[in-house]
Amino acid sequence: MNEILEKLLEAVEFGKVDIKSPYPPQLRGQDGSTELTLKAIENGINPQQILELALIPAMANVGKKFSENKIFVPQMLMSARAMGASMIQLKPFFTSGEIKTKGTFIIGTVKGDLHDIGKNLVAMMVEGGGWTIVDLGVDVGSERFIEALKNSPGAIVGLSALLTTTMVNMGEIVSAIKKQSPETKILIGGAPVNMDFCEKIGADFYAPDPQGAVEYLNKMAS
Ligand code: B1M
């Protein structure tokens, strides 16, 4: 793999945000995810490759080490910060270009769940696909989705969940939204969910990744 991407993967995996950050001690004085992302862009590496070859594998390594009790929540949080710093640099590449005319996409991570990296990636890609985004953030219950729908009638709703304990909240949110406005289309995603679960809770579609979300939304808009 390209040396910059290797270093970026390491920076995100070990939570090195930028050159000034003292954490982690073994990378002190070295470039963090901010500088390495900029270097990768300057060297002509495609932003999609930066995501797929460095950032996403780094988070997969973090998850594996967490499962094996080799790291704990604070380290996981530093990796998330490093990934977020990198995404700030990548965002303009995914969101520039088209005029936003396709419709509104309301997205949030469901109640009880604080994971937002995947949700932010989906929001970024969908925005780049020409949609207006209403990002409700994390830990979002049905009331806030319904309120957002009142402000953006006809919008499509996206629910993200990363925990097996919070994916069940998706079902409650889908029921509440469908009760209020049965015509609203609801897309779900996140590591623990799949198409079977989507059908079980009465959502309209499951997308495994941001690209799947963009394709579904574009199909709805056409
Ligand atoms: Co958490 N965490 N975490 N965590 N965390 C996981 C999810 C876990 C799998 C780690 C593990 O054990 N291996 C595990 C869940 C186990 C389970 O439920 N079975 C776990 C746990 C247990 C926890 C805590 C309970 C830990 C604790 O406190 N003891 C706690 C829960 C807090 C809470 O939410 N209430 C917790 C906390 C955290 C941090 C806050 C420290 C941090 C999150 C910071 C943040 O998001 N700002 C964190 C992190 C970073 C992770 C891992 C390491 C990485 C998640 C991530 O960002 N992945 C994760 C392990 C892993 O995923 N391997 C883990 C990268 C991201 C790009 O992928 O989010 O899957 P993902 O999104 C993908 C797709 O799923 C899809 O597209 C994205 C891009 O491909 N997608 C959608 C996502 N949403 C979509 C929506 C769509 C469509 C597609 O349409 C609407």
Overview of the structural elements:
The structure is a single chain. Helix 8 links the parallel strand 4 and strand 5. The protein has 222 residues and is of the alpha/beta class. Helix content is 55%, strand content 9%. It folds into two domains: 94 residues, Methionine synthase domain (Methyltransferase, Methionine Synthase (B12-binding Domains), Chain A, domain 1), CATH 1.10.1240; 118 residues, Rossmann fold. The protein has a five-stranded parallel beta sheet with strand order 2-1-3-4-5, with helices on both faces. Bound molecules: CO-5-methoxybenzimidazolylcobamide. The site of CO-5-methoxybenzimidazolylcobamide (B1M) has 39 residues, from helix 3, helix 4, helix 5, strand 3 and strand 4.
